[in-house]
């Protein structure tokens, strides 16, 4: 395991939770992704420890068809590449809302930022990078879904902004197990430090013990 606390000389540590919404990660929602709720529970452990340490936390939501907290439909132009790749799909408002609400066990608290995005990366078309700079975050723990899509795109952009990126492997999930494993391997080779279960437990202990603190 790379020593996250030991790397803090250049800046602070932050947490980014990518698209852990009810439609994917809430076991009470029909059609949720099977690997979503277990990943959400691991994310909850991380968030509990990060909050205790005073780390800044960001969430993302949104994506292909719906872009606002009221589940208003995107226009054809706003849908852009999603429409060209996947065709038109009209979701009922109830389903769209489930795709916009963060899973209850991870519910953002006052002071934590929720960003609405319309493309895979949390950085594209959002103020995330300026907020990270304002918070003096140079090291980012990225968790969420999907490993092969929005997580990977976000990690790649974070790396491109010269952030040090850490991905706890039990805190990310995908509907495609093979894609999940292949992308984790590639992320670990090129862009981020991967934390296995043991290293994740160690990180939680260090956060809870005050070895890593927010700024």
> What general outline do the C-alpha atoms trace?
globular
SSE order, as H and E? EHHEHHEHEHEEHEH
Give the C-alpha Rg.
16 Å
Mean residue pLDDT: 87
With helices defined by DSSP (H or I, 4 residues minimum), what is the helix count?
8
**Biggest β-sheet, characterized?**
7 strands, parallel
Q: Work out the strand percent.
A: 15-25%
Strands, count: 7
Structural class computed from helices and strand pairing? alpha/beta
Characteristics:
215 residues, alpha/beta, seven-stranded parallel β-sheet, globular
Protein architecture, described:
The protein is globular and about 50 Å long. The protein has helices at residues 22-25, 36-53, 76-86, 93-98, 128-134, 147-160, 177-190, 197-208, and strands at residues 12-18, 57-62, 113-117, 137-145, 164-168, 172-173, 193-195. It has 8 helices and 7 strands. With 215 residues, it is an alpha/beta fold. Strands 1, 2, 3, 4, 5, 6 and 7 form a 7-stranded parallel β-sheet that branches. 40% of the residues lie in helices and 17% in strands. β4, α6 (147-160) and β5 form a beta-alpha-beta unit.
Provide a short characterization of the protein structure.
By secondary structure, this protein is an alpha/beta fold. The protein has helices at 22-25, 36-53, 76-86, 93-98, 128-134, 147-160, 177-190, 197-208, and strands spanning 12-18, 57-62, 113-117, 137-145, 164-168, 172-173, 193-195.
């Amino acid at each position: 395991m790379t020593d996250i606390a030991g790397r803090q000389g250049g800046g602070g540590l932050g947490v980014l939770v990518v698209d852990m919404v009810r439609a994917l990660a809430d076991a009470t929602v029909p059609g949720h992704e099977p690997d979503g709720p277990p990943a959400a529970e691991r994310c909850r452990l991380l968030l509990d420890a990060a909050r205790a340490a005073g780390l800044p936390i960001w969430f993302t939501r949104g994506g292909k068809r719906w872009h606002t907290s009221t589940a208003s439909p995107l226009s054809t132009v706003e849908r852009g590449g999603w429409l060209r790749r996947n065709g038109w799909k009209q979701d009922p408002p109830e389903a769209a809302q489930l795709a916009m609400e963060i899973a209850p066990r991870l519910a953002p608290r006052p002071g934590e930022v929720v960003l609405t995005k319309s493309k895979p990366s949390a950085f594209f078309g959002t103020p995330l990078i300026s907020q990270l700079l304002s918070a003096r975050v140079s090291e980012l723990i990225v968790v969420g879904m999907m490993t092969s899509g929005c997580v990977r795109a976000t990690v790649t952009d974070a790396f491109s902004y010269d952030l040090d990126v850490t991905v706890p492997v039990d805190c990310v999930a995908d509907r495609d197990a093979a894609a999940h494993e292949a992308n984790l391997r590639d992320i670990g080779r090129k862009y981020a430090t991967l934390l296995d279960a043991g290293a994740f437990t160690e990180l939680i202990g260090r956060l809870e013990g005050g070895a890593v603190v927010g700024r």
